[in-house]
Amino acid sequence: MQSYFRNRWLPYLLLIPTLIILVCFLYYPILSTFSLSFNRSAPNGIDLTYSGLENYQRLLDPQITRTEAGVTLFKGQYLIVLVRSLVFSAIIVVGGLALSLGIAVLANQKIKGIRIYRTLLIWPYAISPAIVGVVFLFMFNPVVGVINYAWGNIFGTRPNWLGDPILTPLLVIAAAIWKNLGYNMIFYLAGLQNVGGELLEAASIDGANSWTRFWKITFPLLSPFTFFLIITNLTYSFFDVFGTIDILAGPGPANSTTVLIYNLYRDLQVNHNTGLAAAQSVMLFGLVAFLTIMQFRTNEKRVNYNA
């Protein structure tokens, strides 16, 4: 049954508050950022001069160094940061989903007190990324961290988790995966509880072992959840990890944890280069949008919504 408004203008009147919020806090900032990306900012970060595509050229220039006003700019650094961000994102998405699915399978077992275990596993999602950074910072502190203390007692060494260009990125990735673990597990757990028991029982009667039943029946039926979680985790890995990185490692030793979102923040807040930061914001948005569209064009065909 379709509803009708007696007054033809009433629907538009009801939409006005939502449109005002969208214009003020979404559409205007997007257009403003796009406009700023075509300007060169003064050292104070406020005065702007139109420069066309110069900011984008500076980001994508393959030259290693260039000097402007006595300051050496590492122009090829952005491409390095781009590759590093893609690697970070791939590990966070794939590793996070695989670990979440494994935990969800365990949490789907019918054992005593399982609801308590599920609640405890979901809790990390309620913690903000910055608090996750603080938690891991104290746990892995080279001097007073409980992990380092236990590691030293067991193995006789105390790794410099926050000062090693290999260990620090791995620690940031682990913190990012742990933060989103509860979110992913909720969806996978809901999917597992809706998998038809008759299908698994029929496969078991036909002689399929538990591993075959999982990969041939259970996992394909979870494809809608996996597809949705890939998109949300992709966005999370590019944007929401900033708080964790900023608190836990900053740029990291040898810039090993400087990803796109942190590089953008540093150019804006530290170097006061408003135009360059705006160009990076536009490129980051375009990259995530491109990856999302590619996911829809390639993986959505494999999703089965009829199971």
Task: Write a concise synopsis of the structure shown.
By secondary structure, this protein is mainly alpha-helical. It contains 13 helices and four strands. The protein has a single domain (77-302), classed as MetI-like (MetI-like fold), CATH 1.10.3720.10.
Mean pLDDT: 85
Instruction: Please compute the radius of gyration using only Cα atoms.
Output: 24 Å
User: At the first level of CATH, what is the class?
Assistant: Mainly Alpha
Structural class: mainly alpha
- CATH fold descriptor: MetI-like fold
Order of helices and strands: HEEHEEHHHHHHHHHHH
Which strand-content bin applies to the residues?
under 5%
- Beta strand count: 4
Number of helices: 13
**Tally of structural domains:** 1
How is this structure best described in words?
This protein has 307 residues and is mainly α. It has a single domain (77-302), classed as MetI-like (MetI-like fold), CATH 1.10.3720. The chain contains 13 helices and 4 strands. It has helices at 10-36, 54-60, 77-107, 114-122, 129-139, 146-155, 167-192, 197-205, 210-221, 223-240, 242-248, 260-270, 274-298, and strands spanning 39-41, 48-50, 65-68, 71-74. Strands 1-2 form a two-stranded antiparallel ribbon. It has a two-stranded antiparallel ribbon with strand order 3-4. α1 (10-36) packs across α13 (274-298) and α2 crosses α13 (274-298). The protein is globular, with a radius of gyration of 24 Å. It starts with 9 loop residues before the first helix and ends in a 9-residue tail after the last helix.
